[in-house]
Structure prediction request, 308 residues.
Amino acid sequence: MSLRLEKIDTKHSPQYAQWADVHGDIFSDPSWIQIQADSSCTYVLRDDSNWLGCFTLNQETKWGIRLFRNPHFSPHICWSWNHAAHKTTSQHNSWKAAMDLMIGIFKNHKLSKIQFSFPTHVNDLQNFIWKGFHVQPKYTYQIDLHSSFDLILSQISSSHRNHFNKAKKDGIEWVIQHSPQEMEILVTSTFKRKRKKYHPAYLHNILNNFCNEENSMMCFASLEGKVIAGATVIFNRKKAYLLLSGYHADNKHGGAGIGCIIHLIESCQKRQIPLFDFEGSMIPEVEVYFRGFGGEIKPYMSITKNIL
Prediction:
């Protein structure tokens, strides 16, 4: 059976909700996709009988150039795939056909800039190389939460442990608390201070309209009753992602943010979430910070091409 590519409306597709629950991670969740609805399109790859895959591409036009990117605040294109064939050749054939259908999306635009990523488990992107796309690895760190928490703590760098212990001695306290307004203040001030480009409306909607106590956790560090740092993870039963973090510059403490992440790792483990992902670590100063938590480095593939 031949494959075809169809655009779908996830808001009105019960089948997509079922698919995402079984085969997707938190970025495939219909509520996450709905946050992106005004700037993204979701596609299903299918044959005559079954869905085989789904993905979501941010598609916006600036200065007459069509942009194809990951959805906002997403590390990849919300990719999910399931092929039930027993024959390896059938699985490979369907995958290659699916990649060609994806590439076909970009052919209708004379001016376009393409830059998006697949999740860590995707490794066959030959079709993109053959068609002149640039395929390069990026990296993230992941912690296996099947290990005991004592073992996880033992893998944390001595520098991070020292900062964390000093924070405890200095009287910093941590609490897991759902407070999206407080988190938005922390993250916004941090982004502005670091001159990081971001979309305030998407940040607000993610924290206030997507995040809830069933799919996210927020940890705050306080000193003398004042919040000084915080971090947010979002998750489903398969994986947790460190989505956002921030701190107040006037009360900066090296161990406050480290403590937030340690408490979130512990809380994810208690929820029996099997994997904690730091959601990309390509900026050198961010990479060394995430590396200090002792995770395993994992490559994921990025696709780029400019058609100008």
Remarks:
- The mean pLDDT is 95.
- The chain has ten helices and 13 strands.
